[in-house]
Amino acid sequence: MTTTRGLEGVVATTSSISSIVNDVLTYRGYNIDDLATNASFEEVIYLLWNDKLPNKTELDQFTAELAVNATIPKEIVDQMKAYPIDKVHPMAALRTAVSTLALYDEEADDMSEEANYRKAIRLQAKIPTVVTAFSRVREGKDPVEPKKDLSFAANFLYTLTGEIPEDVAVTAINKALVLHADHELNASTFTARVCVATLSDMYSGVTAAIGALKGPLHGGANERVMAMLSEIDSVDNVEPYLQNAFENKEKIMGFGHRVYKTGDPRAKHLREMSRKLTDLTGETKWYEMSTKMEEVVTNEKGLPPNVDFYSASVYHSLGIDHDLFTPLFAVSRVSGWIGHILEQYSNNRLIRPRAEYVGSTNQTYVSVENR
Ligand SMILES: CC(=O)SCCNC(=O)CCNC(=O)[C@H](O)C(C)(C)COP(=O)(O)OP(=O)(O)OC[C@H]1O[C@@H](n2cnc3c(N)ncnc32)[C@H](O)[C@@H]1OP(=O)(O)O
Ligand SMILES: O=C([O-])CC(=O)C(=O)O
User: Fold this and answer.
1) What is the 3-state secondary structure (H, E, C) of the chain?
2) Protein residue whose Cα sits closest to atom 48 of ligand 1
3) pTM of the predicted structure, to 2 decimals
4) Which of 53, 96, 132, 187 has a 20 to 30 A CA-CA distance from 281?
5) Residue among 21, 25, 257, 328 whose CB has most ligand 2 atoms within 8 A, to mutate
6) ipTM of the predicted structure?
7) pLDDT score recorded for residue 2
8) Do 173 and 234 reside in the same domain of the chain?
9) Which residue has its alpha carbon closest to ligand 1 atom 29?
10) Quick check: CB of 306 below 6 Å from ligand 2?
11) Residues 59 and 161 in one domain
């Protein structure tokens, strides 16, 4: 047996959803630069699940279906109120709430193709409402009912703040959602596929994926990037902070990637958004510190920024709480998880690799009194 640590370079499945070849990312054959510049998130979800962009009628119908399914059961909100709210991370709340949503879905264990597609829409529609409801509940406010005439991106901001968002914020969130939607066999997507390959239900797959996304080596990095920028606090402190981190062999959050070697194609879009939004808020230091960090880490370590790096200053500039950054990633990535879950179901085989045993051998049981 040969062992590959972290399954690096191992091709574990075929997929026709997204691809990374020579550091170029495509969703269903469309370059991410094209989609980030032109597409709505609703179109991208449809694309990921249906292998084609929707026509106008299909898009209108799909958007309406998302809108009518966005409300979450009152029981979920009541349960949130009972959480030890000041100690609960929103990713933990999201993980629990998504698992709980299954209890209120009569089709949760219906594995037919039609029921799975209906559940896909319900999950995609409700997850942003769960995130924003939790944010409001912990502030002692009532959740805001999503509006049927707002886009997916606008509803996220509206249900978060209770105010109709400005176009510039909606455009930024839409682009961030498009950029985060899918990414081949990343850790959380792989988790979702492993889970449902046992023929477990879609809620289980998405709940498992949220757990994987939460970690700091994956989606949880974006919140840590903001914590790092806040600690550094000025452009002058960037070099000394990084030199110290390098000496202590610390990982710099938001840099490096398992697959990209020359750079993450999503980062340049987020960098530009960070520049524009920090210009608008007047807090240009976040962008200036970020570009200085990119210069030093790239020059000294050869590590380019990944998607999580500039998304931090983008979300901060939009006034989003730092611990909601990773849940916002999940709001987008659930589209990819579901695409992969549907693909897994359509051509399923149990995912069960082997482990090379390196533990003790030839042990003989000794009774507890004699140990
Ligand atoms: C959406 C996403 O999930 S994007 C990734 C988000 N995660 C982060 O930003 C966390 C910081 N980055 C990392 O920890 C890593 O680069 C990962 C987890 C993304 C990829 O990890 P791997 O492919 O396993 O690379 P690995 O951790 O083995 O790194 C290889 C070498 O580069 C170094 N390295 C990699 N990333 C970093 C970093 N961010 N800061 C400092 N050194 C790093 C490692 O220390 C290691 O050095 P060594 O060979 O001298 O021991
Ligand atoms: O692909 C990965 O390993 C991590 C990543 O960038 C993502 O999930 O967007």
Assistant:
1) CCCCHHHCCCCCCCCCCEEEECCEEEECCEEHHHHHHHCCHHHHHHHHHHCCCCCHHHHHHHHHHHHHCCCCCHHHHHHHHHCCCCCCCHHHHHHHHHHHHHHHCCCCCCCCHHHHHHHHHHHHHHHHHHHHHHHHHHCCCCCCCCCCCCCHHHHHHHHHHCCCCCHHHHHHHHHHHHHHCCCCCCHHHHHHHHHHCCCCCHHHHHHHHHHHHCCCCCCCHHHHHHHHHHHHCCHHHHHHHHHHHHHCCCCCCCECCCCCCCCCCCHHHHHHHHHHHHHHHCCCHHHHHHHHHHHHHHHHHCCCECHHHHHHHHHHHCCCCHHHHHHHHHHHHHHHHHHHHHHHHHCCCCCCCCCCCCCCCCCCCCCHHHC
2) 249
3) 0.98
4) 132
5) 257
6) 0.99
7) 85
8) no
9) 256
10) yes
11) yes
> Could you tell me if residue 85 is inside a domain?
yes
Verify whether ligand 2 is closer than 6 Å to residue 213 (CB atom): no
Give the residue whose CA is nearest to atom 41 of ligand 1: 251
Say if residue 79 is in the same domain as residue 160.
yes
Write out the residue range of the structural domain in which residue 241 sits. 221-317
CATH assignment at residue 116: 1.10.580.10
Considering the domain architecture, whether residues 110 and 244 belong to the same structural domain is answered as no
Q: Does residue 360 fall inside a structural domain?
A: no
Reported confidence tier of residue 10, pLDDT bands at 50, 70, 90: very high
